[in-house]
Amino acid sequence: MTTVVSLGGSIVAPDTADVVFLKDFTRLIKELLDADQERRFIFVVGGGGPARIWQQAYREAREALGAAVADGDADWIGIMATRLNAQLVKAVMGDYCKDNVVINPGVPVVFTGRVLLAAGWKPGFSSDYDATLLAEQFKADSLINLSNIAQVYTDDPKKNLNATPIDRISWKDFRAMVGEEWVPGKNVPFDPVASRHANAINLKVICASGKDLPNLKKLLTGKAFVGTEISG
User: What are the tens digits of pLDDT across the range 132-155?
Assistant: First the structure.
C-alpha cells in the first residue's frame, strides 16, 4: 500500500526547520513502516516559512526598485524552498528513502525504497498539485493533506469567531470556497489547481493537522480521527 501525503511546509519549517517535529514525525513513520512491510509513503513537501520569507523579500525589493513583480519568479522562489525542505526530510528519513527527490511528477517516477520525497515542479500551482499527480500515478484512492490546521472551516477562524469546522464537504462546495486561480503564496487548505484535478479524477483528500501526531497515527491506521474529508 502506498500512502501519498502532501506535507505542508508550515509544519516542516514554519519559520526555520522544526527539529522536534522532524524527529517525532520520522519516528512515527518508521514505526508504521516496521509494523507493515508492504507499506510505503510518498511525501510531497511544501515551502513553508522559507518560501514565504524569500517571496516577500523579492516583492519588496522589486517594488523598491519601481519594477513589476512577476508571479512566475515568485513561484520559482517558492519551488526552491520546497526542494530544500524535501531534501531535509529525505536526509532525516535516512535508509528508508533511497531515491532522489522527485521534482517532476508529470513523468513516470522510480520508487525503490519505502519512503519517497517530492517537491515543487514548476510555476502555476503549489506542491498540492504535485501530490495529486503522484496519487494518480500510484493509483492511490485518497491523498492526505497535512497542514497547521486540524480541519477545514466555513471561514477563517482567526478572522471570524463564528466559523465552524467541517467534517465532510463535496468538491463542488470546497472549490467554491477556495476559488479557481492560483496565486504564489496563497493560503488555502488545498490549492485550487490541485482541487480541480482531484475533483476530475475522483480523488478523496483528507485534510488534517500534521502537528497532532496521535491524531495522525489514528488516521494512518484506519481509526477515528479529526479532519475534513473532501470528495464526491
Answer: 999 999 999 899 999 988 999 988
2-231 under CATH 2.40.30.30, yes or no: no
User: Could you tell me the end-to-end alpha-carbon distance of the chain, in angstroms, rounded to an integer?
Assistant: 23
Beta carbons of 100 and 118 less than 8 angstroms apart: no
Using the structure block, give the residue that is written with the C-alpha cell 508529470.
Answer: 106
16 neighbors 49 (Cβ within 8 angstroms): yes
**Domain residue extents for the chain:** 2-231
pLDDT in tens, 160-194: 888 899 999 999 999 998 887 777 666 778 889 99
